[in-house]
Amino acid sequence: PLAEITKEDVYSKYLSYAGKKMALVAYGNIHHEWLIAMANYYYRPVNLESLTRLGNEIGLDLSTINTISGQTSFDIAATSQYIFQQVVINAILPFTERYQLPVILTGGGALNVLLNEKLRTLPCPVFVPVNPNDCGLSFGMMCLRNPPTETVNISYSGFGILDKHKLPDYAERFKARPTHIRELARLLCSGKIIGVMRGNSECGPRSLGNRSILAWPSAGMNDRLNQIKNREPWRPVAPIVRLQDAEVYFSPACVSPFMSYAPWVNEPYRDKVPAIVHKDGTARVQTVTEEQNEFLYYLLSCVEVISDIGILINTSFNIKGKPILTTIEDAIEVWQTTDIDCIYI
Length: 345
Known about the structure:
The strands form 3 sheets. The protein has a 6-stranded mixed beta sheet, with helices on both faces. Strands 1-2 form a two-stranded parallel ribbon. It is globular and about 65 Å long. The protein has 345 residues and is α/β, with parallel strands linked by helices. Helix content is 37%, strand content 10%.
């Protein structure tokens, strides 16, 4: 029912609305008079009838799309998020207190970075995999059939560049030229937006540097990127940082290779990298090590040398409603039809 969330196809794309609603949370206030009704809602079957019943209990029309807007919309998002966190934490706490074992989160709810950030306060390790939602089911079945004997890193085990054999033709047609990481860093620090397509695509719902749009987090850059991707203007963009530097820019520092948490942006840097700071002062950070993604690691190192700040924006290399890129042809189309300055393949 939240009017701020654009709904071109309300029936087939509703699963993406939860992530959008999460961004609205920062603009809202918690209504304590709604808490009991919303808590009961989370324990009911999810359907239009239960949503309509919730609306009747809190005095709002939730029976159809775009019935709520403005501050009320933001407050619903904030109150719903608060209840969701409490429901999950209350379900987990008895087990962590009794068994003192690590917690592994799966399901679509594990993509809720605000919840994950709260769970980091538990007295036990919390792990969120790269593909916790339904896209991880196939890999889970393979592991069930053939259990691995050691840690398996599937972060970049998606498709390769499907038309890589055509790269020489594309390079000649569009007058491409070889480049290097130092030049990419200079372009980024000068305000250029670069689409990156390299190696295998990411496994999971988030781009982690192999199918990414990269930019320097200057004032207004989040607006430019949201325009490129035709996203709502209030939605945040994610920063990437070398793991060794995470505690300099964010607190509490975390290991977040899959953009799973939302720590605070440290006060001294909020005015220096405004594009990555959300309304509530947090950012959905991705941390990078040399072993995880050598290209990103050294690109951030070069950016730090040039700008004194080793942070870049990382958002997925696609446009709204389209899947992550798998072909150079698609990358060129996005480059030619948007405000992206250049592409690196």
